[in-house]
Amino acid sequence: MPADKPNRKAAARKKRLAETIEALTALQFGPKQRNETAAYTLLALLDLQPEAAWADAQAPLCGITPIIDFIAAAYGVRYAPNTRETIRDDAVKFFVEEGLLLRNPDDPNRPTNSGKTVYQIEPTALALFRKFGTLEWTSALRHYLASRETLKHEIARKRDLARVPVTLPDGSQVALSPGGQNPLIKAIIEHFCPAFAPGGVVLYIGDTENKFVHLETAGLAALGVTLDSAAKIPDVIVHYRAKNWLLVIEAVTSAGPVDGKRRKELKDLFAGCKAGLVFVTAFENRRTMQVFLSHIAWESEVWIAEDPDHMIHFNGERFLGPYPDVMPVKSNIEK
Predict the structure, then answer these.
(1) Cα distance between residue 264 and residue 254, in whole Å
(2) Which of these three, 142, 161, 180, is where a domain ends?
(3) What is the pLDDT of residues 218-270, one digit of tens each?
(4) Is the pLDDT confidence value at 29 over 60?
(5) Which pLDDT score is estimated for 1?
(6) Are 125 and 188 within one domain?
């Protein structure tokens, strides 16, 4: 009876959704992580069709768009492209934090904000879900919950091994997320600063995983600078105390050099700063620099990590120094 087929499919979808929410509830997830969106997301990451057995659950590598596509094809629920952030923040991100999912297990050095980011069900969790609805489920669930904190610590330990350790001028360390521009940021701190801003104080380092991974609020405030989290902050900010220069540095691997527009943005962002501004674009190598060469702003500097002892100055009468338009305004007393 053809008319029964749609009804049977709809019933299977509804039953599978209810089972998934039940499983997430048993795993002690809160209301936000056991709603329909979270349940469909989990089913996509298990590659589990409505009428398949739980024992058939798989662990494909899956990005956000494939998750949305699977939900639409298998469960008839269509999420608009602008819901990507909702799925990432309300389901995937939390599942990663709780050790249910692994992020980029195929390439731990992939940047956090990469468009190629993928997720995968953690193997222990996969084994558990395959037992849902069987006599083994209750004991397997109990064992999983008892060992979840240990599992999370082990996942975090492996993730930390892939992080980029950066030694600041004062000897302290900051760990940046793997990949992307962070190896270049490490070179800026450990090679550029000692050579061109000896004794300088690193006031800010940005990271795709944590925008304020290193922030010296008091040091910035002393210079009259307050950073708004909504602002487009440069990757590295260094105060070269000996000359009272504030070096604002962009680390460029694929985008974002100090061009004319960006120079003006930075000048406005640091308006009122009590130190002279120096704009620096850092590249890993000459090949990358060549891609952006025509965009570099005049009255700015370029540093290349593969030639760390040299600087390229773009015009003007001084080398590595602030220009009159970005010098701090002196009070009448100082004049």
Answers:
(1) 21
(2) 161
(3) 999 999 999 988 889 999 999 999 999 999 999 999 889 999 999 999 999 99
(4) yes
(5) 44
(6) no
**Amino acid identity of 260?**
G
CA 254 to chain centre: 15
Tell me, yes or no, whether 180 and 302 share the same domain: yes
CA distances from 290 to 3, 84, 234, 304, 332 (A): 64, 35, 21, 11, 45
- Pick from 133, 210, 223: nearest CA to 164: 210
Residue type, 243: K
Of the residues 161, 178, 205, the one at which a domain ends:
161
> Alpha carbon of 180 to those of 18, 158, 276, 291: distances in Å?
40, 18, 30, 17
Residues 171, 303, single domain; the answer is: yes
Query: Is the predicted pLDDT of residue 320 greater than 80, yes or no?
Result: no
Please state, in angstroms and rounded to a whole number, the distance separating the CA atoms of residues 47 and 278.
Answer: 52
